Amino acid sequence: DSSQIAMVIHNLRQQTVGKKENLFYCLSDFVAPVATGKQDWIGAFAVAIDCENSGILKSLHDQKDDYGIIMIKALADRLAEAYAEYLHWQVRRKFWGYSANEKSDSADFISENYQGIRPAPGYPACPDHSQKVDLFNLLDAKNEIGIKLTENYAMLPTAAVSGWYFSHPDARYFSVGKIDRDQIVDYAERKGESIEVIEKLLEPNLAYERG
């Protein structure tokens, strides 16, 4: 039902000037504004590989095989990323179908040479990890696939990937970079949080010293 608000994503505008263009991106730039009258969508996803409860790690722990434990966890991380990439491909080609005729080879996948992006909360384009809370509530991720968040917004199991899908042909990854207090104040107002809370959430991106 397009009349119901399922989730609000709060975004920040890029402050880092790119090498080839004098543009300052925000993820909301890749969605049609309400004023255009056009109906537009974004998607959401979460995937995980739970090796912690597989029995394999317990066996390796019993054998005191630290190297094996490291390798299994590294493999789980790679599998989670691979499945996130595969799911994005399925979304583009089939489920959403905005790029149904896409013909991409392995090199294109590695260089992300295809239409659309899948930015994740906590990464450069959307550095606020706390947005995972709304994302997980929207997907009911805990009940559906068993992913939960720690009090600091880390995902458990740790081999997990989550984020949003943007389909706009010009959508691209970027880094918000350092931001000044004016964006912090505006962001706090939009999220209904205190400036102090937002400063703590976005501390690595602050272009000034917290008071």
Could you give a quick summary of the protein structure above?
This protein has 211 residues and is mainly alpha-helical. The protein is 35% helix and 8% strand.
Bin the strand percentage.
5-15%
The share of residues in helices is: 25-40%
Number of helices: 7
Give the overall silhouette: globular
Sheet of most strands: 2 strands, antiparallel
Low-confidence stretches: none
End-to-end Cα distance: 44 Å
Structural class: mainly alpha
What order do the SSEs take from the amino end to the carboxyl end, as H and E? EHHHHHEEEHH
Major β-sheet strand ordering: 1-4
- Give me the count of strands: 4
User: Over the alpha carbons, how many angstroms does the gyration radius reach?
Assistant: 19 Å
**Mean pLDDT, nearest integer?**
90
